[in-house]
Amino acid sequence: MLIEILSYFCILFTFTLLIYWPFINHFKQTPFIHRTRPYVIGVKFGITGLVLTFSAVHLTNDFMMYIQYIPVLYSGLLGGPFAILISGLIIGIGLFFLPYLELVPMILNINFLVLVLTLFFITRKYKMTNKNIFLFFWACFIETLIALFLGFCFHNKSFEYLLLYGIFTIFSFYFIYIVIRQIKLANDTVKQTTHLNKIDFLTQLPNNKENEKHIKNMIKKKSNFNLMLMDIRNFKMLNLQYGFSAGDLVIKQLAQHLMEYANKNGAYVGRLGGEEILLVLKDVPPAVAIVEANNLINMIAQQQFEVSKDLSIHISVTVGISSYPDNGQTSLELLENVFTAKQQAKTKLSSYFHINNLK
């Protein structure tokens, strides 16, 4: 029986991990995947439960290990209440097709279906999470243990069987949970490290590497776009007057305002370096980019920027503009031209300057 129990655990562990892996590995969430996720998870864990059922360890001729609610619980943690309902119904209905199903196991199976329906309605109101899944597990475990005890009440080895069931079930659930949790933590660490390699720490905007990658992707698509390079006027004086921490605070607040603008207008925003922030406006002609640059300059001039708890100031910015494909066929050419346009705006004491105006 020991080998059978180990094989049973390996099936449960392997199937659960294989189902969980793509989701804890942060694969790309498309709208279609998001909509169908509960149903896909429910079917997968339902099949897992069926495999467990047909390879179950039989404690006696009539009784087997009833741990099918473990994959049901993990389906609920990953896919929500509808995943619980789908996986539970697949397992429960499948149990009725067992050729050796006697009266007492059939009653236990009905008990399982009632348990699934109860979980479905409870989790619709109280979402299953990594914290409360233990409460759901112990409730299912105790309820099933009582049902098994009533079924075993006339068996002379009922205590030994129930003890074996309890040890195996508790070990299986917690061991799988710990492994999944550790894999998720490792993946979160990798994801965070990857994310930090792509963003600027201060502003949380994409960094230079990501900026260039975005521009190159836009060029590959052959779609018209404009680069706007924004620079804070007299930023060195601001640092000298209020301190470098105040300068960082101003840059951070400016980045937040530009992120809000980018989200509303479908634009891209990233930090180029220092007090320079890059915006990419797509599918608009240069004339519209100039209007947008002027609007941004006026919007920023009206904002208050905190430099300390008790002090706020106003700032002004200059904007250089270059357009694809007129002002460059590569990211390097476009960035060189937008930088030149920004320098012209500062030199000529103008708010904005398009590289087309350079004579």
Poorly predicted ranges: none
**Number of E strands:** 7
Q: Tell me, briefly, the overall form.
A: elongated
Rounded to the nearest angstrom, the distance between the terminal CA atoms is 89 Å
- The spatial strand order of the largest sheet comes to 2-3-1-6-7
CATH topology of the largest domain: Arp2/3 complex 21 kDa subunit ARPC3
Q: What is the top-level CATH class of the largest domain?
A: Mainly Alpha
Alpha-beta classification: alpha+beta
Task: Please estimate the helix content.
Answer: 55-70%
CATH architecture of the largest domain: Orthogonal Bundle
Radius of gyration: 31 Å
Major sheet attributes = 5 strands, mixed
**% residues in beta strands:** 5-15%
**The number of domains:** 2
Number of helices: 12
Q: How confident overall, as mean pLDDT?
A: 83
SSE topology string: HHHHHHHHEHHEEHEEEHE
